[in-house]
Design a protein that fits this description.
single chain, 226 residues, alpha/beta, Purple Acid Phosphatase, chain A, domain 2, nine-stranded mixed β-sheet, seven-stranded mixed β-sheet, 4 helices, 16 strands, 17% helix, globular
């Protein structure tokens, strides 16, 4: 597995190719915006038709990261499900897979805007979690305390290489905050040049591109905004 290690607020963190974040000293795996049940919800209630196996693919990715990291703790940073009524949306096989993944782990679901209420699965259900100098919540605050780690925006970055453009989901990082990419399959993304993201980070922000070879680059197109 190709990993990208970096320091954030004095802590050594690891960006995984999948878009997951591992904190070795805490044995903690953090993932955001799984949007489980997205294709099933769209098929039942309307919306763009997606391949019916995106939830299984997302859970397979999560299983691989849990195996590779040996994480004992998991935080899901909100929008874990594409609808609050997951019991009527997710196929039983996917629910059983998810339950099996949780077995023996300290698992925390953080509330998101797609899943604002508690879900009928094991684990703790919280609005936010603080661990040492790091603060985990779903949506970035306007003026956060240092160490904020969030999701919600599904950031992605486009890099030009030898006349070709490469777009990947990415982590966004500055001195105060870290925004994770969407972990779920077929979740889409918001380009990090969008004002909604550009306004959140400082001029020295960087993007860590996901994929087979994660790499850190200056945040593309970023300039201070009024």
């Amino acid at each position: 597995m190709n990993l990208f290690e970096f320091s954030f607020c004095g802590q050594r963190l690891v960006a995984l190719p999948s878009g997951g974040l591992f904190w070795p000293v805490e044995d903690l795996l953090v993932v955001s915006d799984l949007h489980l049940g997205k294709s099933t919800r769209a098929a039942r209630f309307g919306g763009a038709q997606l391949p019916p196996y995106e939830t299984a693919e997302t859970l397979s990715r999560l299983a691989a990261d849990l195996h590779q990291t040996g994480a004992k703790h998991v935080i899901c940073l909100g929008d874990s499900f594409d609808t609050p009524t997951l019991q009527t949306v997710l196929p039983e096989a996917d629910l059983l897979t998810l339950t099996a993944l949780q077995a023996g782990l300290d698992w925390t679901w953080i509330e998101g805007n797609h899943d604002p209420g508690p879900v009928r699965l094991g684990g703790a259900h919280k609005r936010s979690v603080d661990i040492g100098p790091l603060h985990f919540r779903h949506i970035a605050q306007t003026d956060p305390e240092p160490g904020e780690i969030t999701g919600h925006y599904h950031p992605k970055a486009t890099l030009s290489l030898r006349g070709r453009s490469l777009t990947r989901p990415c982590f966004l990082l500055d001195d105060r905050r870290l925004i994770l990419p969407a972990y779920g399959a077929y979740t889409g993304g918001l380009n990090c040049t969008d004002p909604a993201l550009a306004r959140l980070v400082t001029p020295n922000a960087h993007a860590i591109l996901t994929g087979p070879r994660p790499c850190k680059i200056p945040m593309p197109g970023h300039a201070p905004l009024p």
